[in-house]
Structure formats: C-alpha cells, structure tokens
TrEMBL record, chain A:
GO MF term (any one): DNA binding
Keyword entries, A-Z: ATP-binding, DNA-binding, Helicase, Hydrolase, Nucleotide-binding
Stretches assigned to the Helicase C-terminal domain: 351-498
PANTHER family the UniProt entry points to: COMF OPERON PROTEIN 1, PRIMOSOMAL PROTEIN N
Protein name: DEAD/DEAH box helicase
Record-annotated Helicase ATP-binding domain positions: 166-318
One Pfam family from the record: Helicase_C
Record Gene3D superfamilies: P-loop containing nucleotide triphosphate hydrolases (3.40.50.300)
GO term, biological process aspect, one: double-strand break repair
Keyword RNA-binding: no
Domain of life: Bacteria
TrEMBL record, chain B:
Gene source species: Bacillus yapensis
Name of a matching Pfam family: Pribosyltran
Protein name, UniProt field: ComF family protein
Domain Phosphoribosyltransferase: 187-231
Lineage: Bacteria, Bacillati, Bacillota, Bacilli, Bacillales
SUPFAM superfamilies: PRTase-like
C-alpha cells in the first residue's frame, strides 16, 4: 500500500478520491502525525488492540476507513516497517539487519519492488510498503486494583529476593535473579507483580517456551483473580486481549512496542541471550522507556557471571531450595571409550552396573545422552534388562505421552536428549549423563540436568552421575557452581545441616 | 549460488566432488538435507494427471490412468479439455511446509527453489498462463504465487484468465467443486485461438481448478491446454 501526503496527513491509496502522487511509507522522509483531537470518540476496542503494539494492517480487523479516521484524529500512529541506512535495510519490527535474511519481490500492494524481512515472516510479512500501526497514548488503560490472593509463605531466601524484585519494580531498574533449580522462583515474583499492578503498571512475563506460558498462566490467574491475564503463544486466542498482566513467549514479544512498565524475562539461560540480538531487540522494543527488567535464571552464562562478580550487574541469588536441603553434587565417573563399546553392542561395565542397580531397587532414572542417533544403539541394550525402558527426543511425536508414563511410573528408566534438561520434574529420581564430555553438555545444561534430582521435599536427595571419557571445563564449572551455591546457602542459614 | 538454504537458512557448503564440478554453474537454493526431502515424481504415472501409479491399488488403475482421471474423462461435461498435467514433486510434509510459507506467509523468494526444474519442463511455443487469484487474495499476499513461479524462470506469464468470484475451494465437497458455475472468464481482448497453452499452478489436488480453466480456454478456441504444477 502506498500513501499520498495531503494537508500534512497520510492518505492510503485505496482511500484517495482524486489522483495524487503516492509513495511507500519507507520512502517518506517524515511521517506526519496529526494532533490528537480530544473530543473524538475513538473505538475503545481499537485502543485495547493497539495500545503498546506494532501491528500490521492485516492484524487489525477493522476497515481501512475506520483506521484512517483514528489516524487523522491523532489516535493511531504509523511507523516504517523497514528503514534504510545507506541502502542497508533494517526490519523495525524484529531488528534484523542481516542481509541474508532479506529478499525482494514485485509487490502488487505498492506496484514496486518491495524489500521484505524473512526473519520474522512467520508473524506476517513486513516490507518497504508495510506500516506498523500503534496507539498514540502510552499511558495504560486503568485497571481494577488486583489484590494478591495467595496463601503460601516465602522462605527467608525467597523473601529476600522478593524484596529486591519489588525494589527494582519501584525504581525501574534491571535485576538478575539467580535462583537454583527448585528454589521456587515463581513465588518470589508475586509480591512484586502485586505492587506493580497496584501502581497501575503493565506487567509482562516472557519465557522462551510455550509449555511455561501454559503452566504459568492459570497459576497467575488464580492468584490475581480480579484481572484477566492474557496468555500469548503461537496460536493462542488472547491475541487481541488487553491485560495489565501478560504472559507470553519471547517470540510473541515482537508484536509489542513500548508496552510494559515491567518485563520479567524467564529462563534467560535457555537461549544464548548475549548472542541472540533478536531477543534483546524485542525486549527493548516491548518495554517502555522508563521500565524495570527482571531476568530469571538458574545458570547465567559466563559473561553474566563475570559481570555479577565484577559488580557490573545488579543481581540477587537464591542459593538454596525451598525445602532447605543442599543441591545434589554431581559425581564424575570415567567410563572409557563408550562409543567403541557401543559399536560392539555393549555399554561400559560401570554404566551397566549403575543402570542395573536402579532397575533392581526400582528407583526411577533419567539418562541423558548427547545425540539422538545413539537411541537405536542404546535402547535395545537396555530393553533387554527391563521392558519398561523408553527413549525420548525433541521430534518424538509421543514425547508428552512418554513424560506422562514416566510420571505415572509405567516407565522405570527414560533415555533422553537434552530436551528434558529443564521444566520437567519427577520426585525421587536418579540422573546419569552418558558421554558428559560432549560439547552439547555446556555448564548451564549440566547444572540444569543436575537440578532434576532431589526436587521434592519428600525425596530431597538422589544421585547425579556424569559418565565421561575425559573431563571437560564445563563439567568442572558446573560442579563448582553447584558447590558454590550450597556453600552460600549454608552460610546464609538457608540449608539445614544434617 | 546463494550462500544460505532458502528454507532452513543453514549455510550451504559447496563440496567439490565430481558431480558438483559439472553442476556448479547451476544455482543452488536448498541445502542438501532440504533438497533430499523433495521427492521427484518419477516412474510410472497416470497418463493424464501424472499421479504415481505404484502407490495406487490395482483396482484404482485402468489402462495407465488413475480412477479419478477415468471418471473425469467419462463425464461428457469435462472430457478432453485438459490434455495432460505434469507435476514436479510429491506433496509430502516437507513440500507442504515450503508451499505454505511461500503462499500463505508470502515468502516470495522461495519460488526460486523450483525455477530450474520448471524451466526444464517447459515445452517450446506455449503460452504460460498462471491461475489467477481474486483481487482480495492478491492484495493480501502481495503477489500471485503461480505468476511468480513463471517470472522466476525468466519467462513472461500471459494473463488470459480472470476470477469471476472468489472461492474457498478447500471447504467444498468434490461434487460442489465440480458443479460450481464457471470460476474463470477470459480477460477481454485476449486472443487464444490456435494457441497451445500451459497452465501453471502450485498444487494439483482434484484437478478441478485446472479443468475449469482448460474448459473455458478450449471454448475460446485454444488448440490445447496442459498444465504444470509443483506438487501432486
Ligand atoms: Zn523482521
Ligand atoms: Zn509493496
Ligand atoms: Zn535447508
Ligand atoms: Zn490421473
């Protein structure tokens, strides 16, 4: 679509009544913004849809005429979807500037060769003739006072962090919450969110995984029953819902623009944040200029750990689990050239012994393997020991069923690739990492994997064993991180001495 | 040679074995992993629609024709209009993914993946006619996916057809699809008399769209109408 500029206003080509010169939004030197007419009766549904957003025309289920009248009366804003800096395109929605992610085509919307971003095309195509629509006013729609309806209590460790979170929200600061697996990190957010909502702030929890959105949304809806929580993921139905509390996948953040006073970014370690410029861009676009940003992680990457040590980053730790028992520390067991053993159709003797012991005592276990290709080699060997042994991987169509069967104890041992390294918890579990020297087992992956053991208060112990053919830096760092947390937890008195 | 796979964006590694030595002048748009998932339609196929016959049970094949085509050709209203359809690849999940990103997300550049093979299949002296979209659909997508396939081979599409009204084909039963009133009309002032026409479309599903187009073109005097589609 092209626009004419008439009387210092944009007019889209389809609405022109007389022939006029038109151009694409990208080629305009400046986008005129008409002043806001206070007594214009705007469509409140449109306000809810567009407030703090950057949407495509196709994402607004209203006529072009209605959109235009809101623009002319100063309620809707238009921004360029693609901008050029010395002929280099940039996608304003996702921040992409990598030329290999752009392409162009003869566009029938504008009749020109249109350059478009392929990086975010799954959310609708942004090209040089694509405006991003938003709402003029960034002040939020006021919401009813949401009172926190939560009967639980915080451990001293959690309370300390909860106070820090509240403080960050109050003064619009950044904070890294470094909480060990099983610390109860969600609970430390409740008071902060409550405070933010009371201050009429708009809050967002963003997480890389849809599973987490689906798990968190009902939990938060239950403790903030008065407001309506918006839950966003690919294919969710809340897309047009306006809420003071939004739970979203990081992917869906791309539709927001200067929307949130507080963003809580969960599982910062699940993706290489420091290298993922796209996510950084999305978070920066989605937060207001004055806002707080809280990162949650069990294992910050090396860069962040360094910044924490050097005092360059505000952080707070929860070094101990809510049940006051120490984190199980991984033991390292050398198992020789396991690859060679596998080609001969066997497993190293000490691995075999470990597995047999679990089967005999009936203790459930997860066995992490470095590659999906190993499954057909290992699984038949183990199924000879016991039929109730299964394997699971990322593309497994029966993944959910197998996790469920593990939970109901129909499966005794589950072989898995790193996909089960986070999220899932089973009580009373031992864990083995097979081939722990593989590059896929980074420090953070190993800490997460170790964090599967001893989660429940009823069974706070358990074995975590790294079977390896040569120690790696990652293994050593992971163990050091876990031991460090235990030490800190003890010192602070948040772990009971047995 | 594009540097990255157009579908999965993996870097394409140029390996210098003998086969690539001879083919290196050709453009590569997919990595080997993706390329290997495009399954060419080969072997014995239906004389009319090029459906692979090995996959059909015997009772569905009559004289090298699939039962669907036999039925079309038994129908006085439809027989003889579409001379032959050729399809490049099996419509598997992988191709489904590519076509849906191409068509529904509007990722135009994916057309390039197919240009070489389309080029190889084009007979000389035919008019290349894209299946048109409704005006709304064309605005929505910003381009006509069948026209783009022709453009990317370096040929020029000839616009002979127009939609009379928009149709959501997938929602209709086979009976409805066959018996709806004419969906296409000939664009005014277009001479088709004695021309050999090749219709281009993305997917051959039932063949009804192509037969509708063929019928109106033959009635307007075209000598023959065949079709070429990406998927079957
Ligand atoms: Zn983009
Ligand atoms: Zn355009
Ligand atoms: Zn590929
Ligand atoms: Zn056939």
């Amino acid at each position: 679509m092209k626009f004419a500029v008439l009387h210092e206003k944009l007019v889209p080509e389809p609405l022109l009544t007389t022939p006029s010169a038109t151009q694409t939004i990208t080629s305009l030197a400046e986008i005129p913004q008409p002043p806001t007419i206070p007594n214009f009766s705007f469509n409140p549904e449109l306000q809810k849809l567009l407030l703090g957003k950057q949407l495509l025309l196709d994402e607004i289920p209203l006529s072009l005429e209605e959109i235009q009248s809101h623009y002319e009366n100063g309620y809707i804003t238009l921004r360029k979807g693609i901008t050029f800096n010395k002929n280099i395109p940039k996608c304003e929605r996702c921040g992409n500037q990598d030329q290999s992610w752009f392409a162009s085509f003869p566009c029938s919307r504008c009749g020109e060769t249109c350059t478009y971003c392929r990086k975010c095309i799954m959310m609708g195509r942004v090209s040089t003739c694509t405006p991003l629509y938003g709402w003029i006013d960034v002040s939020d729609i006021s919401h009813v006072h949401a009172t926190l309806d939560w009967k639980g209590t915080l451990s001293p460790g959690q309370q300390h962090v909860s106070n820090k979170v509240m403080e960050s929200i109050n003064v619009n600061k950044e904070l890294l919450v470094w909480a060990v697996c099983g610390a109860g990190k969600t609970e430390v957010l409740f008071e902060g969110i409550n405070r933010a909502l009371a201050m009429q702030k708009r809050v967002c929890i963003a997480t890389p995984r849809t599973d987490v959105v689906l798990e968190l949304s009902p939990r938060l809806q239950a403790i903030f029953p008065i407001i309506e929580v918006a839950s966003l993921y690919g294919g969710s139905e809340d897309r047009q819902k306006y809420s003071p509390l939004t739970i979203t996948t990081t992917h869906q953040l791309l539709r927001f623009y200067k929307a949130f006073d507080t963003i809580i970014l969960d599982e910062v370690d699940a993706f290489p944040y420091s290298v993922d410029k796209a996510l950084q861009y999305a978070v920066n676009q989605a937060r207001k200029d004055m806002s707080s940003l809280i990162y949650l992680t069990a294992t910050p990457n090396e860069q962040w750990q360094k910044e924490c040590r050097q005092g360059k980053r505000d952080f707070v730790t929860i070094p101990a689990r809510y049940h006051r028992h120490p984190l199980p520390v991984p033991e390292f067991v050398w198992c020789g050239n396991w690859n060679k053993a596998l080609t001969k159709g066997t497993l190293p003797a000490n691995v075999m012994k470990w597995l047999k012991h679990r089967i005999e005592t009936g203790k459930q276990a997860l066995i992490f393997i470095p590659k999906i290709e190993l499954i057909p080699k290992i699984l038949p060997l183990l199924q000879k020991l016991h039929p109730a042994i299964e394997a699971v991987h990322a593309e497994d169509p029966n993944r959910k069923e197998k996790v469920k069967a593990m939970r109901s104890k129909e499966i005794s041992l589950l072989i898995t690739t790193t996909i089960l390294e986070r999220g899932v918890t089973f009580p009373n579990l031992d864990v083995a990492v097979f081939g722990a020297e593989d590059r896929i087992f980074t420090e953070s992956a190993l800490v997460q994997i170790s964090g599967r053991v001893g989660r429940s208060a009823q069974y706070p112990g358990g074995w975590i064993t790294f079977f390896h053919y040569g120690l790696t830096e990652s293994m050593l760092k992971a163990r050091k991180q876990i031991q460090g947390m235990n030490k800190e937890g003890l010192k602070k008195g948040w772990i009971d001495v047995e | 040679m594009s540097e990255y796979c157009l579908f999965c964006h993996e870097q394409i590694t140029s390996n210098t074995n003998w086969s690539s030595f001879f083919t290196s002048h050709k453009e590569t748009y997919l990595c080997q992993v993706c390329e290997s998932q495009l399954i060419k339609i080969e072997g014995e196929t239906c004389d009319i629609c090029s459906r692979p016959l090995e996959k059909l049970e015997k009772q569905y094949v009559i004289n090298n024709r699939c039962l669907d085509c036999v039925r079309w050709e038994e129908d006085d209203e439809w027989k003889g209009y579409l001379l032959k359809n050729e399809s490049l690849y099996e419509y598997n999940d992988f191709l489904k993914g590519i076509i849906s990103q191409y068509k529904f997300r509007g990722d135009y550049i994916l057309a390039k993946i197919f240009s070489l093979r389309i080029q190889q299949k084009l007979p000389p002296n035919v008019l290349l006619v894209p299946i048109p979209l409704s005006t709304e659909r064309q605005f929505e997508r910003g381009f006509n996916q069948t026209e783009a396939l022709i453009n990317e081979t370096g040929q020029s599409p000839i616009h002979l057809l127009e939609r009379t009204h928009s149709e959501k084909q997938s929602k209709k039963s086979r009976h409805d699809r066959i018996h709806i009133p004419q969906v296409f009309q000939i664009e005014e002032g277009r001479g088709v008399a004695d021309k050999d026409i090749l219709l281009i479309d993305d997917i051959y599903t039932t063949g009804s769209t192509l037969r509708h187009a063929a019928k109106i073109l033959i009635h307007a005097g075209a000598k023959s109408v065949s079709s070429l589609t990406l998927a079957r």
